Iron chelate uptake ABC transporter family permease subunit (Arthrobacter caoxuetaonis), 326 residues
Amino acid sequence: MTVQRRRPVRNLSPRSWIIILSVVAAALVAVFMTIELRGNIGYVLPRRAIKVGSMILVAYAVGVSTVLFQTVTANRILTPSIMGFDALYVLIQTVLVFTLGGGFVLAMSEPLRYGMEVALMVGFSFLLYRWLFTGGGKSLHLMLLVGIVLGTMFRGMSSLLQRLIEPSEFIILQDLFFASFNNVDGALLGYSLIAVVLVSIPAWRMRHQLDVMSLGRETSINLGVNHKRSVTLVLVICSVLVAVSTALVGPVTFFGLLVASLAYQLCSHFKHSAVVPMAVLIGIIALVGGQLVLERIFSFNTALSIVIEFVGGIVFLILLLKGSLK
Protein backbone atom coordinates (compact mmCIF):
# COMPACT_ATOMS: atom_id res chain seq x y z
CA MET A 1 0.00 0.00 0.00
CA THR A 2 1.44 3.31 -1.09
CA VAL A 3 1.16 6.24 1.29
CA GLN A 4 0.93 9.57 -0.49
CA ARG A 5 2.69 12.51 1.04
CA ARG A 6 0.53 15.47 1.83
CA ARG A 7 1.66 19.01 1.33
CA PRO A 8 0.42 20.98 4.34
CA VAL A 9 1.46 24.29 2.88
CA ARG A 10 -1.05 23.77 0.06
CA ASN A 11 -3.99 22.86 2.28
CA LEU A 12 -4.87 26.54 2.54
CA SER A 13 -6.44 28.30 -0.41
CA PRO A 14 -4.42 30.98 -2.24
CA ARG A 15 -6.83 33.62 -0.94
CA SER A 16 -6.13 32.51 2.65
CA TRP A 17 -2.40 32.63 2.04
CA ILE A 18 -2.68 36.10 0.54
CA ILE A 19 -4.60 37.31 3.61
CA ILE A 20 -2.05 35.76 5.99
CA LEU A 21 0.92 37.16 4.07
CA SER A 22 -0.75 40.60 3.87
CA VAL A 23 -1.27 40.68 7.64
CA VAL A 24 2.33 39.65 8.31
CA ALA A 25 3.69 42.18 5.82
CA ALA A 26 1.53 45.00 7.25
CA ALA A 27 2.60 44.10 10.79
CA LEU A 28 6.28 44.15 9.86
CA VAL A 29 5.90 47.52 8.12
CA ALA A 30 4.13 48.95 11.19
CA VAL A 31 6.84 47.63 13.52
CA PHE A 32 9.60 48.94 11.28
CA MET A 33 8.03 52.40 11.18
CA THR A 34 7.42 52.70 14.93
CA ILE A 35 10.12 50.69 16.72
CA GLU A 36 12.45 52.81 18.85
CA LEU A 37 10.83 55.94 17.48
CA ARG A 38 12.37 58.83 19.35
CA GLY A 39 13.98 62.19 18.78
CA ASN A 40 12.87 64.38 15.89
CA ILE A 41 9.90 62.38 14.63
CA GLY A 42 9.37 64.77 11.74
CA TYR A 43 12.83 63.80 10.46
CA VAL A 44 12.90 60.11 11.37
CA LEU A 45 9.47 59.07 10.03
CA PRO A 46 9.96 60.41 6.47
CA ARG A 47 13.34 58.66 6.21
CA ARG A 48 11.86 55.39 7.40
CA ALA A 49 8.95 55.84 5.02
CA ILE A 50 11.34 56.24 2.07
CA LYS A 51 13.27 53.14 3.13
CA VAL A 52 10.11 51.06 3.54
CA GLY A 53 8.70 52.43 0.29
CA SER A 54 11.85 51.44 -1.59
CA MET A 55 11.74 47.91 -0.13
CA ILE A 56 8.07 47.51 -1.09
CA LEU A 57 8.72 48.79 -4.60
CA VAL A 58 11.72 46.49 -5.10
CA ALA A 59 9.76 43.51 -3.76
CA TYR A 60 6.92 44.32 -6.16
CA ALA A 61 9.15 44.94 -9.20
CA VAL A 62 11.33 41.87 -8.67
CA GLY A 63 8.42 39.56 -7.74
CA VAL A 64 6.24 40.54 -10.70
CA SER A 65 9.05 40.56 -13.24
CA THR A 66 10.35 37.14 -12.14
CA VAL A 67 6.97 35.40 -12.30
CA LEU A 68 6.15 36.94 -15.69
CA PHE A 69 9.63 36.19 -17.04
CA GLN A 70 9.40 32.56 -15.98
CA THR A 71 5.99 32.31 -17.65
CA VAL A 72 7.18 33.46 -21.08
CA THR A 73 10.41 31.42 -20.87
CA ALA A 74 8.45 28.34 -19.72
CA ASN A 75 10.83 27.35 -16.94
CA ARG A 76 11.56 28.13 -13.30
CA ILE A 77 15.33 28.57 -13.54
CA LEU A 78 15.69 31.73 -15.56
CA THR A 79 15.27 35.17 -14.04
CA PRO A 80 16.27 38.53 -15.52
CA SER A 81 19.15 38.80 -13.03
CA ILE A 82 20.55 35.35 -13.79
CA MET A 83 20.58 36.30 -17.48
CA GLY A 84 23.37 38.86 -16.90
CA PHE A 85 21.35 41.89 -15.82
CA ASP A 86 23.32 42.48 -12.62
CA ALA A 87 26.63 42.13 -14.44
CA LEU A 88 25.47 44.84 -16.85
CA TYR A 89 24.67 47.12 -13.90
CA VAL A 90 28.19 46.61 -12.51
CA LEU A 91 29.67 47.35 -15.96
CA ILE A 92 27.66 50.56 -16.30
CA GLN A 93 28.80 51.80 -12.90
CA THR A 94 32.40 50.85 -13.65
CA VAL A 95 32.41 52.62 -17.02
CA LEU A 96 30.93 55.77 -15.46
CA VAL A 97 33.57 55.91 -12.71
CA PHE A 98 36.37 55.02 -15.15
CA THR A 99 35.46 57.64 -17.73
CA LEU A 100 34.06 60.44 -15.57
CA GLY A 101 35.71 59.84 -12.21
CA GLY A 102 34.22 58.82 -8.89
CA GLY A 103 33.80 62.39 -7.67
CA PHE A 104 31.94 63.42 -10.79
CA VAL A 105 29.65 60.39 -10.60
CA LEU A 106 28.77 61.14 -6.99
CA ALA A 107 28.20 64.79 -7.84
CA MET A 108 26.10 63.94 -10.90
CA SER A 109 22.41 64.71 -10.70
CA GLU A 110 20.63 61.68 -9.26
CA PRO A 111 17.71 61.85 -11.75
CA LEU A 112 20.17 62.10 -14.66
CA ARG A 113 22.24 59.10 -13.57
CA TYR A 114 19.12 57.15 -12.70
CA GLY A 115 17.51 57.85 -16.08
CA MET A 116 20.68 56.91 -17.94
CA GLU A 117 21.03 53.62 -16.08
CA VAL A 118 17.37 52.71 -16.63
CA ALA A 119 17.53 53.55 -20.35
CA LEU A 120 20.68 51.47 -20.92
CA MET A 121 19.41 48.44 -19.01
CA VAL A 122 15.95 48.52 -20.58
CA GLY A 123 17.43 48.76 -24.07
CA PHE A 124 19.89 45.90 -23.49
CA SER A 125 17.46 43.57 -21.79
CA PHE A 126 14.69 44.11 -24.32
CA LEU A 127 16.96 43.40 -27.29
CA LEU A 128 18.46 40.31 -25.64
CA TYR A 129 15.24 38.80 -24.33
CA ARG A 130 13.26 39.49 -27.50
CA TRP A 131 15.91 37.75 -29.58
CA LEU A 132 15.94 34.74 -27.26
CA PHE A 133 12.28 34.23 -26.48
CA THR A 134 10.27 35.24 -29.54
CA GLY A 135 9.82 33.18 -32.64
CA GLY A 136 10.48 29.48 -32.45
CA GLY A 137 11.13 27.55 -29.26
CA LYS A 138 14.59 28.03 -27.83
CA SER A 139 16.68 25.54 -25.94
CA LEU A 140 17.04 26.08 -22.20
CA HIS A 141 20.72 25.31 -22.58
CA LEU A 142 21.07 28.09 -25.17
CA MET A 143 19.37 30.58 -22.85
CA LEU A 144 21.62 29.67 -19.94
CA LEU A 145 24.70 29.70 -22.16
CA VAL A 146 23.93 33.17 -23.52
CA GLY A 147 23.28 34.50 -20.01
CA ILE A 148 26.50 33.00 -18.66
CA VAL A 149 28.58 34.21 -21.60
CA LEU A 150 27.22 37.76 -21.42
CA GLY A 151 27.56 37.87 -17.66
CA THR A 152 31.15 36.63 -17.89
CA MET A 153 31.97 39.12 -20.62
CA PHE A 154 30.50 42.04 -18.65
CA ARG A 155 32.31 40.98 -15.46
CA GLY A 156 35.58 40.60 -17.36
CA MET A 157 35.28 44.08 -18.85
CA SER A 158 34.37 45.47 -15.43
CA SER A 159 37.34 43.73 -13.80
CA LEU A 160 39.74 45.12 -16.40
CA LEU A 161 38.52 48.67 -15.91
CA GLN A 162 38.55 48.31 -12.12
CA ARG A 163 42.25 47.45 -12.22
CA LEU A 164 42.96 50.66 -14.10
CA ILE A 165 41.16 53.14 -11.86
CA GLU A 166 42.55 54.83 -8.75
CA PRO A 167 42.17 52.98 -5.41
CA SER A 168 40.14 55.84 -3.95
CA GLU A 169 37.69 55.67 -6.86
CA PHE A 170 37.53 51.89 -6.56
CA ILE A 171 36.26 52.30 -2.98
CA ILE A 172 33.52 54.60 -4.27
CA LEU A 173 32.69 52.04 -6.94
CA GLN A 174 32.43 49.18 -4.43
CA ASP A 175 29.65 50.98 -2.55
CA LEU A 176 27.55 51.00 -5.72
CA PHE A 177 27.73 47.22 -6.25
CA PHE A 178 25.49 46.11 -3.38
CA ALA A 179 21.79 46.77 -3.05
CA SER A 180 21.19 49.28 -0.27
CA PHE A 181 17.96 50.78 1.04
CA ASN A 182 19.67 53.30 3.33
CA ASN A 183 20.37 56.08 0.84
CA VAL A 184 17.41 56.02 -1.54
CA ASP A 185 16.46 59.39 -2.96
CA GLY A 186 12.81 60.28 -2.35
CA ALA A 187 12.41 61.89 -5.78
CA LEU A 188 13.81 58.80 -7.53
CA LEU A 189 11.40 56.65 -5.54
CA GLY A 190 8.56 58.74 -6.92
CA TYR A 191 9.81 58.37 -10.50
CA SER A 192 10.18 54.63 -9.99
CA LEU A 193 6.65 54.36 -8.62
CA ILE A 194 5.24 56.10 -11.69
CA ALA A 195 7.13 53.75 -14.05
CA VAL A 196 6.03 50.68 -12.09
CA VAL A 197 2.38 51.74 -12.09
CA LEU A 198 2.41 52.42 -15.84
CA VAL A 199 3.72 48.95 -16.73
CA SER A 200 1.59 47.22 -14.10
CA ILE A 201 -1.66 48.24 -15.79
CA PRO A 202 -1.14 46.14 -18.97
CA ALA A 203 0.39 43.34 -16.88
CA TRP A 204 -2.75 43.05 -14.75
CA ARG A 205 -5.05 43.22 -17.78
CA MET A 206 -3.29 40.28 -19.43
CA ARG A 207 -3.23 38.05 -16.32
CA HIS A 208 -5.70 35.56 -17.83
CA GLN A 209 -3.73 35.52 -21.05
CA LEU A 210 -0.60 34.74 -19.03
CA ASP A 211 -2.39 31.75 -17.50
CA VAL A 212 -2.89 30.39 -21.01
CA MET A 213 0.71 31.16 -21.99
CA SER A 214 1.96 29.14 -19.02
CA LEU A 215 0.57 26.04 -20.80
CA GLY A 216 3.24 26.38 -23.48
CA ARG A 217 3.81 28.18 -26.76
CA GLU A 218 2.01 25.72 -29.04
CA THR A 219 -0.97 25.33 -26.72
CA SER A 220 -1.41 29.08 -26.25
CA ILE A 221 -1.24 29.68 -30.01
CA ASN A 222 -3.86 26.99 -30.59
CA LEU A 223 -6.08 28.69 -28.02
CA GLY A 224 -5.92 31.99 -29.94
CA VAL A 225 -3.12 33.87 -28.13
CA ASN A 226 -0.91 36.13 -30.25
CA HIS A 227 2.19 34.62 -28.69
CA LYS A 228 4.87 36.83 -30.24
CA ARG A 229 3.02 40.06 -29.42
CA SER A 230 2.27 38.92 -25.87
CA VAL A 231 5.85 37.81 -25.20
CA THR A 232 7.19 41.12 -26.52
CA LEU A 233 4.85 43.06 -24.23
CA VAL A 234 5.81 40.95 -21.20
CA LEU A 235 9.52 41.41 -21.93
CA VAL A 236 9.06 45.19 -22.09
CA ILE A 237 7.28 45.07 -18.72
CA CYS A 238 9.99 42.89 -17.18
CA SER A 239 12.75 45.08 -18.60
CA VAL A 240 11.27 48.24 -17.09
CA LEU A 241 10.56 46.64 -13.71
CA VAL A 242 14.03 45.14 -13.27
CA ALA A 243 15.81 48.22 -14.63
CA VAL A 244 13.91 50.51 -12.28
CA SER A 245 14.58 48.25 -9.29
CA THR A 246 18.29 47.81 -10.06
CA ALA A 247 18.91 51.49 -10.79
CA LEU A 248 17.11 52.50 -7.59
CA VAL A 249 18.88 50.31 -5.01
CA GLY A 250 21.34 48.05 -6.83
CA PRO A 251 21.38 44.40 -7.97
CA VAL A 252 19.69 41.51 -6.13
CA THR A 253 20.52 38.42 -8.17
CA PHE A 254 18.70 35.53 -6.48
CA PHE A 255 15.95 37.47 -4.71
CA GLY A 256 13.40 37.05 -7.51
CA LEU A 257 14.04 33.32 -7.77
CA LEU A 258 13.62 32.99 -4.00
CA VAL A 259 10.24 34.75 -3.74
CA ALA A 260 8.83 33.19 -6.92
CA SER A 261 9.80 29.67 -5.84
CA LEU A 262 8.23 30.14 -2.40
CA ALA A 263 5.06 31.55 -3.98
CA TYR A 264 4.71 28.51 -6.25
CA GLN A 265 5.30 26.21 -3.28
CA LEU A 266 2.50 27.84 -1.28
CA CYS A 267 -0.01 28.24 -4.10
CA SER A 268 -2.32 25.31 -4.86
CA HIS A 269 -2.79 26.52 -8.44
CA PHE A 270 -0.62 28.56 -10.76
CA LYS A 271 -2.98 31.35 -11.74
CA HIS A 272 -1.14 34.65 -11.97
CA SER A 273 -3.85 36.46 -10.04
CA ALA A 274 -2.70 34.43 -7.00
CA VAL A 275 0.97 33.67 -7.63
CA VAL A 276 2.01 37.26 -8.37
CA PRO A 277 0.49 38.82 -5.20
CA MET A 278 1.96 36.02 -3.10
CA ALA A 279 5.43 36.55 -4.59
CA VAL A 280 5.19 40.29 -3.92
CA LEU A 281 4.04 39.80 -0.32
CA ILE A 282 6.78 37.24 0.35
CA GLY A 283 9.28 39.73 -1.03
CA ILE A 284 8.00 42.50 1.27
CA ILE A 285 8.20 40.18 4.28
CA ALA A 286 11.74 39.13 3.36
CA LEU A 287 13.02 42.67 2.82
CA VAL A 288 11.25 44.50 5.63
CA GLY A 289 11.61 41.64 8.10
CA GLY A 290 15.23 41.05 7.17
CA GLN A 291 16.13 44.71 7.48
CA LEU A 292 14.32 44.88 10.81
CA VAL A 293 16.22 41.88 12.18
CA LEU A 294 19.58 43.17 10.93
CA GLU A 295 19.14 46.69 12.29
CA ARG A 296 17.27 46.15 15.56
CA ILE A 297 18.27 42.68 16.76
CA PHE A 298 21.79 42.04 15.48
CA SER A 299 22.77 45.70 14.99
CA PHE A 300 24.47 44.86 11.71
CA ASN A 301 25.32 47.63 9.26
CA THR A 302 25.89 45.22 6.38
CA ALA A 303 23.72 45.41 3.27
CA LEU A 304 20.63 43.17 3.48
CA SER A 305 21.22 42.05 -0.10
CA ILE A 306 24.31 40.08 0.99
CA VAL A 307 22.20 37.90 3.30
CA ILE A 308 19.40 37.54 0.74
CA GLU A 309 21.82 36.56 -2.00
CA PHE A 310 23.34 33.91 0.27
CA VAL A 311 19.96 32.41 1.17
CA GLY A 312 18.63 32.74 -2.38
CA GLY A 313 21.70 31.02 -3.82
CA ILE A 314 21.24 28.08 -1.45
CA VAL A 315 17.54 27.80 -2.36
CA PHE A 316 18.46 27.91 -6.05
CA LEU A 317 20.94 25.05 -5.68
CA ILE A 318 18.52 22.96 -3.60
CA LEU A 319 15.67 23.36 -6.09
CA LEU A 320 18.01 22.69 -9.01
CA LEU A 321 19.40 19.51 -7.46
CA LYS A 322 15.90 18.30 -6.55
CA GLY A 323 14.73 18.89 -10.12
CA SER A 324 11.97 21.23 -8.95
CA LEU A 325 12.89 23.85 -11.50
CA LYS A 326 11.94 23.02 -15.04
Q: What stands out?
A: The CA atoms of residues 96 and 105 lie 7 Å apart. DSSP finds 14 helices and no strands in the chain. The chain has a mean pLDDT of 78.
